[in-house]
Amino acid sequence: MPSTFHNLRVLPAALCLLLASASPFAAEAAGSGWPTSRPAQLRQQAAATAMLAAVSTAGGRIVAVGDHGVILLSDDGKEYRQARSVPTRAMLTSVAFIDRSTGWAAGHDGVVLKTVDGGEHWKLLRQQYGQEQPILSIWFADADKGLAVGLFGMALSTSDGGATWIEVKLSSGDAADRHLYRIVATASGTLLIMAEAGTVFRSEDGGKHWDVIDSGEKGSLWSATAFTDNGASTVVAVGMRGHVIRSADDGRSWQAVASGTTQSLTDITQLSGRELAAGGMGGTVLRSNDGGRHFTLEHSAGDEPITALLKAPDGQGVLLFSMAGVVAPGP
Fold it and tell me: Which of 321, 287, 328 is nearest to 304 (CA)?
C-alpha cells in the first residue's frame, strides 16, 4: 500500500501510460480495444471495491464512485447496490450532483459521465484513452456550467452540461503545472481549487479569472469543505501529514490548525452546523465541533485509507468510504 494518497491517485495514471502505445493518439485510435473502454461489470462484492469519492444528492441518495467504473447507490447509507449501467471500467475519482437526478462522475482516461436518473444509468460524454492527466475533481454550478481539474495543472470548463470541454489556464509561472485536487464553492459563490504545494486557486467570477493564493502550507491540499460560521464564509482544507488549514475570509487568507495526527488527510465534510469530520490514511477519522478550529481523534477505522466521508442519511454518525470499499458507519 503506497504511503500517501497522492501516490494512490498518481500510480494508476502512471500505469495507464505504461499500458498505452507510443502516444495517447494511438491509444485513442485503438478505441474499443482499450481495456477500460468496456462497460463496468456487475460485481458480487461491489461494496468492497476501492471507492474514491461520494456525494449525497438533494434527494438523500448516496452515490459513491471508484475503481473499475464501479458506482454504488444507497438510499439509507446501509445497503448498497451497483448502478444499472456504467459505460466504462476506468477508475472514477470524483462525483457531483446539482439535484436529486442530474449528476456527473469523472476520473482516469479523462472520462466524464452523466446521469439524469439519480445514478442508475450513465452516459459517456468524454474520454481520452491513455491520457496521463486523470480528472480528480468535477463541479457543476447548474445543468450547463461546470469545471473539471486534474494532474499537471489540467483544468477544463464546459457550458453545455459536459458535452464539450475547453482547456482553462489558471495561472502562469511555477504554479501553472501544479496538481489540482479538489474544487470547492464557498457560501458566497467563490470557487477554490485545492492544489499541490499548499497552493489555492481562487476565482470570484465563476472561473473566468483566477488568483494564486499561498496558504502557507507546503504539502498538497487534497480536500476542503466550505460553510458559513457566525456569518463568515469559512473554508477548512486538509492534506499531507495531517495538516489542516482554515480560512474565515472566503479563502483569501489561511491559518494552520492543529489536527493531532501526522496521518495524511484525504477528505473533510460538514456534518451539521459547525460539526466537521475528516479522514485519511491508516483509517484515521477526526472530528471538530467548533467549525474547524480544533480537532480530536474520533477513532481509527482499520488500516485502509479513508477516501471519502458523508453525513449519514439519518443524521446519526458519518459514512466512511475507503480503498477497501464501504466502511461500517462511524459514530
Answer: 321
Phi then psi for 12, rounded to 5 degrees? Answer: -60, -35
Predicted structure pTM score: 0.89
Rounded to an integer, what distance in angstroms lies between the CA atom of residue 326 and that of residue 72?
Answer: 9
Assess contact for 126 and 110: CB atoms under 8 A: yes
Helix, strand or coil, per DSSP, at residue 33 = helix
Rounded Cα–Cα distance for residues 195 and 155 (Å): 12
Please give the Cα distance from 161 to 108 (Å, whole number).
19
The CA-atom distances, in angstroms, between 61 and each of 72, 77, 115, 144, 222 are 10, 8, 13, 22, 24
Question: Which residues make Cβ contacts (< 8 Å) with residue 273, sequence separation at least 6?
Answer: none
Q: What is the mean pLDDT of the chain?
A: 89
Q: Which single residue is written with the C-alpha cell 462525483?
A: 95
DSSP string, 146-206: EEEEEGGG-EEEESSTTSS-EE-----GGGTT--EEEEEE-TTS-EEEEEGGGEEEEESST
pLDDT of res. 36: 87
Average pLDDT (11-31) is 35
pLDDT per residue as tens digits for the range 181-228: 999 999 999 999 999 999 999 999 999 999 999 999 999 999 999 999
- Angle (CA) 77-56-88 rounded to 5° is 95
The position carrying cell 473499475 is 68
Residue type, 229: D
Contact in structure between 83 and 120 (CB atoms under 8 Å): yes
